[in-house]
Specification:
The protein has 426 residues and is an alpha/beta fold. The chain folds into two domains: 4-13 and 309-415, Immunoglobulin-like; 16-304, TIM Barrel (Alpha-Beta Barrel). The protein is 25% helix and 23% strand. It has nine helices and 21 strands. The protein has helices spanning 15-20, 38-48, 59-72, 98-108, 132-148, 166-172, 206-217, 242-258, 292-304, and strands at residues 10-11, 13-14, 22-25, 52-56, 75-79, 113-117, 158-159, 182-187, 224-230, 261-266, 315-316, 318-321, 327-333, 339-345, 350-351, 356-357, 363-369, 377-383, 389-393, 400-405, 410-415. It has an eight-stranded parallel beta sheet. A six-stranded mixed beta sheet has the order 2-13-14-21-18-19. The chain has a three-stranded antiparallel beta sheet with strand order 12-17-20, with no helix packed on it. α8 (242-258) runs parallel beside α9. The protein is globular, with a radius of gyration of 22 Å. The two termini are 41 Å apart. 44% of the residues are buried.
């Protein structure tokens, strides 16, 4: 029995903040998949509704990034980190090139740039650099101070360097004075987003990322972005099926947002096609056809997108009567006043031992609207196993309605007007 007097009103989050938290990695300088497929990939990005990509701050990227911004409004997180002589990605960093990097961004892609990022995973790519800790700290300091001293660049946030282990974050230490965001690469192998971890201190869980990595980079607790995250389909190397990847990708964006990540960039837009896990990370297959993960993302964005000026969302006094511990929820609101309640079961959808898809039981949930919020219509957007959306009406009786939560995202639109079920996923 739900005791109304014990249920506080829940303040909603602007729905568009969730859309703003979604990003994806691209590699426009890679000829084999990206640059020669630019037109097709640009069209798919436009279909997806994704507003942010992450790519390297190199000349081969600037024109692609600028065109994305001019035609679709998509902005790029520019990843810095040029190396000394030679093409090797394991050559030591060359801080003397920071001026050139920043000047090129400023003159060739400023409007298209959303943020600057310190170098990528230098702890495992420093090659012959015997003082890699000192040099990554110096590079981050120099990048930050030069950017903030430049009138054209000073308003661009600077993300810390990404690293790959607790030991590396501890060695590099506090960067509070020289970053605006903590940077994490929040991969979870083939485990579900809300897993409790599978190593020391809950290694691989969101709690581990938040409690054992982020505090080393920012003692003060600056906001966090994950510039890489996600899943791949190489089952022989801790991958999972496309179906499970689709379920986990939607829940990853939702769960990371719920746990406080400001933005999460899925790795990556399109599978590159080579053998092994590196070839099958894409939202799109190598031939640009859509995987379930792509459809999940574009449908989430389609339902929750709500661009416009800042507004103060209201609150909703409701309760969900459930008998399981794995229900997750986020309450959103749009500028027209409608509430959007996102609900899912944070449970495994993939058996990591036998490498087969799981289909967890649905959970029937009763939602009670505690006070009169003038809610007269509830529309359910229920994602299916391939990332498409089934839409239906949930009748309200005595201020209550029921629906079934699953291991996929469900979104309930609560309105004070008639909903015509007009959502048209791409």
């Amino acid at each position: 029995m739900i005791k109304a007097q014990a249920i506080p009103a829940i303040t909603a989050i602007p729905a568009d903040l969730f859309v703003e938290s979604i990003g994806v990695n691209t590699h426009w300088a890679f000829w084999n998949v990206y640059s020669h497929n630019y037109t097709g990939l640009k069209a798919k990005l436009g279909e997806s509704g994704i507003r942010y990509v992450r790519d390297a701050a190199v000349r081969a990227v600037y024109s692609a990034a600028s065109y994305l911004y001019q035609s679709l409004g998509i902005k790029t997180n520019m990843l810095t980190g040029r190396r000394r002589s030679g093409p090797s990605s394991s050559s030591p960093l060359d801080p003397t090139q920071i001026d050139a990097e920043l000047n090129e961004i400023k003159t060739e892609a400023l409007a298209a740039t959303v943020s600057l990022e310190a170098p990528n995973e230098y702890d495992i790519s420093h090659g012959s650099d015997t003082d890699w800790v000192g040099n990554i700290k110096n590079y981050t300091y120099t990048l930050y101070t030069k950017a903030k001293a430049d009138e054209a660049l000073r308003n661009l946030p600077v993300l810390g360097p990404s690293l790959t282990s607790e030991e590396a974050y501890k060695a590099v230490g506090n960067s509070d004075q020289y970053i605006d965001y903590v940077n994490l690469h929040a991969y979870q192998a083939n485990r579900w987003p809300g897993n409790n971890g599978y190593g020391n201190h809950g290694y691989g869980s969101i709690t581990w990322f938040l409690n054992w990595l982020a505090p080393y980079q920012s003692f003060s607790g600056k906001p966090i972005q994950a510039t890489e995250a996600g899943y791949h389909n190489d089952i022989s190397s801790e991958g999972l099926s496309e179906e499970a990847e689709g379920k986990y990708t939607g829940r990853m964006f939702a769960e990371y947002f719920r746990r406080g990540f400001t933005r999460t960039y899925k790795y990556e837009l399109v599978s590159e096609g080579q053998s092994g896990s590196e070839g099958v990370y894409g939202l799109l297959r190598n031939n640009l056809t859509e995987k379930p993960a792509f459809r999940v993302v574009k449908n989430l964005i389609s339902i929750l997108s709500d661009k416009g000026p800042d507004f103060t969302p209201g609150s909703l006094n409701y309760a969900i009567d459930w008998g399981v511990d794995d229900v997750r929820q986020i309450l959103f609101q749009k500028r027209d006043g409608d509430f959007y309640l996102m609900v899912w079961l944070e449970v495994p959808s993939w058996n990591v031992t036998t490498n087969v898809d799981l289909n967890p039981s649905e959970q029937g949930l009763l939602v009670t609207l505690i006070n009169n919020h003038n809610i007269t219509n509830v529309t359910l957007y229920a994602f299916n196993n391939i990332g498409d959306v089934n839409t239906s009406i949930c009748p309200i009786n005595n201020n209550q309605f029921t629906f079934h939560a699953t291991d996929k995202i469900s979104i309930l639109q609560l309105s004070s007007h008639n909903n015509s079920i007009s959502h048209d996923p791409y």
